[in-house]
Structure formats: C-alpha cells, structure tokens
Design a protein that fits this description.
There is one protein chain. The chain is mainly β. It has 2 domains: 2-99, Immunoglobulins (Immunoglobulin-like); 105-197, Sandwich (Immunoglobulin-like), CATH 2.60.40.10. The protein contains no helices and 20 strands. The protein starts with a strand and ends with a strand.
Length: 242
C-alpha cells in the first residue's frame, strides 16, 4: 500500500484564459490502491459545471472542465487525491480570466456649491489590473496637487476596484465634465461625470413654541350689602407664540 502522489508532469499548472473560453484542468495521481480525485475551490465557493448545468461544491474525476469561463470562475482550484492511505495530497491550480475593463458610475451628475469639497467616483472591473486615471473635458490628465487627489481602492474579488477623485475648495472654473479612464492589455473604457453648481444647504432653525401669559382686564358687577358696585378683575389667558 502506498499513499497518493500527484504527478505534476501530467497535471495542469496555472492557466490564463480570456473570458468566454473553455478551460480543462487535469490532475493525475499514483498510489496503491489507485487514488480517487476530487476538485474544490480554494475559497470554498461553488464550481459551475456546464456539462450538466449544475453548481457544486466538489467535483469528482481526474478532469475538471469549465466551459465559457467568466470572471466569476477566476481563482484557485484544488485537486485532492485520496486512497485511504494517509496522507492525502493536493495541488493548487490558479485560473486567471482576462477581460477588458468595464466601469459604472454611481452618480453621473454631481452638484456642489462653490467653496465645498467633493469626491467623484467610478467603479471598475478589469483583469489584468487596469491603469486608471482622470481627465478634464479637454482631455488634460489630472495629477495630484493641492486641488486634486486621486486614488484607486482595491476591491474584493481582486478584479474590482474603485477610482476616486477628490476636489478641494470647488470654484467656478472646476465645473464641467470629468472622465475616468481604465486601460489594460485587453482594452479600455471611460465614463463621464458632470460637476455643476448647486445652492449651498440652508440651515432651518428648529420650530419652537413658547408660552406667554397676557393680562386681560375685565369688569364685573356684583351686589354688596351696600348696593351695586363694580370691580375690575384681572384674569390670565395663555397664548402661543410660534
């Protein structure tokens, strides 16, 4: 009896393919008794099996076929060989899926008053990682300065990122069109954001209600043992001042 051993010479290594292509991963192992092979993703997400149109956590067999792969299939796959004789062995195979940049913009129209700071944002998906930059409407590239600060924030999964352009102390000359641009070896794309002037926010004081007391004199007639008399009586009415 012999524990399993994966033969790297006839097993797949890391692979890079374009989105929409087919991928075949192979894993061959020796041992006594003959090992069985199962596949799983390194991050424990499910595997899309096109052959029977199913999604599974594990797949059994020497060969794993992924048809018309997408960015969602990108990641590391483990082939695990077992035959009941410890230890089991595994091989990690990384599948990279290349595709041109795609972007979407949460807010294409952004209003900001003069003197305020503002942040423009574009969401990017690309593999390999794209080169990202911003321009004004005259195609002049924007560089970091006292006025501008640019940043790209990596996302999860790794093919996602967020481009941000911070503009400080907005002036009339800052209004107009800004373009976010992403390029990689598979292609490029861009999107536009229009920055326009808006009124500054107004602060409305909270509504208050104050109670005030007013003195209202009234005259009443009453009868005393000495005849009819008059008396002025002050009584109090409560009013409200909004």
């Amino acid at each position: 009896m012999m524990p399993p051993n994966i033969d790297d010479s006839v097993s797949s290594s890391d692979v890079i393919v374009r989105e929409g292509a087919n991928v075949t991963l192979r894993c061959k192992a020796t041992g006594s008794p003959p090992p069985s092979i199962k596949w799983k993703r390194d991050d424990n997400t499910k595997i899309a099996i096109t052959r029977n149109n199913s999604v599974v956590l594990e797949w059994e067999g020497d060969v794993l076929t992924l048809s018309r792969v997408s960015r969602y299939d990108m990641g590391a796959y483990l082939c695990i060989a077992t035959n009941g004789v410890p230890p089991s062995v595994s091989k990690r195979i990384k599948v990279s899926v290349d595709f041109p940049p795609m972007l979407w913009i949460p807010h294409q129209l952004v209003g900001i008053p003069v003197g305020y700071n503002v942040t423009l944002e574009c969401n990017i998906e690309a593999h390999p990682t794209s080169l990202n930059y911003w321009t004004r409407e005259n195609d002049q590239m924007i560089h970091d300065s006292l006025k501008y600060k640019t940043e790209t924030i990596p996302g999860n999964p790794s093919y996602k990122s967020v481009m941000r352009l911070h503009i400080g102390d907005v002036q009339h000359s800052d209004y107009g069109i800004y373009k976010c641009i992403a390029k990689n070896p598979r292609g490029e794309t861009d999107g536009s954001i229009r920055l326009y002037s808006s009124s500054p926010p107004t602060t409305i004081p909270p509504s208050t209600t104050e109670s005030i007391t007013t003195t209202v004199p009234s005259t009443r007639v009453y009868e005393s043992p000495y005849g009819l008399s008059t008396m002025t009586i002050n009584h109090f009415d409560k009013g409200e001042l909004a």
